[in-house]
Amino acid sequence: PRVAGLPTEMAPPALSFEFFPPRTDALEQQLWACVRRLEPLAPRFVSVTYGAGGTTQERTHAMVARLVRETSLTPAAHLTCVGASRGEVDDVARAYWDAGVRHIVALRGDAPAGEASYVPHPEGYAYAADLVAGLKRVADFEISVAAYPEIHPTAQSDSHDIDNLKRKIDAGATRAITQYFFDTDVFLRFLDRALAAGITVPIVPGILPVSNFKQVAKFSAMCGASVPAWMGKLFEGLDDDPETRRMVAASLAAEQVRLLRANGVDEFHFYTLNRADLTYAIAHILGARPRQPAAA
Ligand code: FAD
């Protein structure tokens, strides 16, 4: 539909924000400034990504623990099964449960850099659907899983990929969060296909506010998200003009969420990239307002 504005009586949508664990002290400060700026918007949950191997994974655990200890936010810990035995994954999940974490974003993960294709660990959960079932055996977690409006890059076909999403839901997941996309029609058609396949849990669009177009174009090629030509045109000539780029990015994302909202979407997940400003502005446009501090 055409979107001139949103009805003012519409309740603000449910929001969630994704962060990644930073690698340096300076980036750590940037992350926590971002968390504190977004916290008053009272998101339904905030999620923390999980990388491959030792210290990267420890950073996720530490960040999730700090969110529990020091903020009013509800954390959702991403957890992958690539490269780990079932026992190792179960131990991580149990430690989260004991630390008060009740929500896991359950993912397969990708083959390590340098390996041509994904091979399941011999004693591991082979795919995300197996991981979901395993996590449910550990404890009664709330579980979100990944979905791909443009199909996962290595899926055999559209229908295999939708069947896979259905298996993840049947195993106990209660929400799917999508890979980011820029063409709203692609997402809306995906919702129709998922519904036709009997998937009735919320499928939450993953919104990536783009301020560094060049970087996003490069990354999108790897994760199977297409970047429409009109978008390249919008950022044309702005490589050395970050200020204008950010304004273009804000208007682009605002248009995208307003169109989704007008089509009935009432839950949004933001890939914040640990920066608050664009996400905050777009959440504001969607009707989110900072929670008033409790009266003394
Ligand atoms: P699955 O659902 O297991 O699917 C992977 C592929 O295998 C699909 O092509 C599927 O169709 C196919 N498949 C499934 N079952 C079978 C089967 N039995 N036989 C044959 N093929 C099968 N990665 C990280 O490393 N850390 C993160 O924190 C992280 N967070 C993410 C958050 C979101 C919202 C999204 C969308 C992705 C995230 N990723 C993350 C990336 C994710 O790990 C990759 O996209 C990965 O390639 C697939 O993970 P999945 O959970 O979707 O896998």
UniProtKB/TrEMBL annotation:
It catalyses: (6S)-5-methyl-5,6,7,8-tetrahydrofolate + NAD(+) = (6R)-5,10-methylene-5,6,7,8-tetrahydrofolate + NADH + H(+). Pathway: Amino-acid biosynthesis; L-methionine biosynthesis via de novo pathway; One-carbon metabolism; tetrahydrofolate interconversion. CDD domains: MTHFR (cd00537). Keywords: Amino-acid biosynthesis, FAD, Flavoprotein, Methionine biosynthesis, NAD, Oxidoreductase. InterPro entries: FAD-linked_oxidoreductase-like, Mehydrof_redctse-like, MTHF_reductase_bac. Its EC number is 1.5.1.54. Coiled coil: none annotated. Its cofactor is FAD. GO terms for molecular function: methylenetetrahydrofolate reductase [NAD(P)H] activity. Belongs to the methylenetetrahydrofolate reductase family. This is Methylenetetrahydrofolate reductase. It comes from Teichococcus vastitatis.
